[in-house]
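Run log // design_07
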């Protein structure tokens, strides 16, 4: 049992740090994905608003 206990004592900290790293990277990637979706949504809303402004200004322009 000393052999297995020694191996577990050596491996458990590495596995724990690996799991912490995995959870941290997963959180970072998910936050980045969410931010990109929010920015894309904001850009789409701004493009739609700009298109509406442009359309309205063209409709209100007097004909020559």
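design_07 sequence
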């Amino acid at each position: 049992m000393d052999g297995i206990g020694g191996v577990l004592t050596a491996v458990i900290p590495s596995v724990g740090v690996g799991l912490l790293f995995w959870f941290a990277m997963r959180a970072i990637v998910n936050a980045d994905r969410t931010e990109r979706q929010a920015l894309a949504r904001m850009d789409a809303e701004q493009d739609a608003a700009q298109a509406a402004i442009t359309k309205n200004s063209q409709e209100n322009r007097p004909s020559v």
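The two ends are 96 Å apart (CA to CA).
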